[in-house]
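Final report, closing paragraph on structural work. Over the funding period we assembled a curated collection of sequence-structure pairs, and we close with a single example.
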Amino acid sequence: MQYISDSAKLGKDTVLGHNAVIMDNVEIGDGCLIGHNVVIHEDTIIGDNVRIDDNTVIGKKPLSSPRSIFKVAKNLKPARIGSFCQIGAHVTIYAQAEIGERNLIADLATIRENVSIGRLNIIGRNCCIENYVKIGDRNKFETNSYITAYSTVEDYCFVAPCVATSNDNFMARDPKRFEHFKGVTMKRGSRIGVNATILPGKTIAEDGMVAAGAVVSRDVDSARIVLGNPARDVREVPEEQLLKNNLDK
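Its predicted structure, as stored:
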């Protein structure tokens, strides 16, 4: 069984699995493979040669509690998925998310509304990219990493498993927090090691490196390595690890 709205447009050689639900005004390009039980919400636009695995939801509208900081905007724009993307099983991509071409989004990942993702990124298993995040090109987010709202990740960045980022120094107890929300900024070529924590508003400059388990409470300078809790500057990033020496690898 399938449900395909009469107003949906499916491209040439696109294949739908069992129980797929394609809602009003959805556009799906040529050569796509849509898995079993996939739900694609109204007005979503999907490019050519996109693979979407079983039980994934595209274009979901966000929920909002009376206590939620973020209120659901009216008239959210549709989700857009670029050509040649691969999207795993049990992924949720919200409305007003824009995903560029040739991205891999692994099983169980969540991409919230108002997220912009460039090209050729890898978003690992069970990653969460929160709302109002901008991601550039050729980044890698490994399993269970968490990118908090209002963050920016430029190009060629690396985020190891179980990295946590934060945007609220007031921990939900002071009205002042509404004036100070700020996520993290990862400049081009910056890297964060496994299980590190980045505190609100901190910037990791170009080629900056955060060691495993570090707690970053101050900005990280360009091409410097920090480690510890709180993280402290210990040395330069080795020349052979700088991005300029690895772009063709």
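The chain has no helices and 33 strands. The chain has one domain: 53-62+75-244. We thank the funder for supporting this effort.
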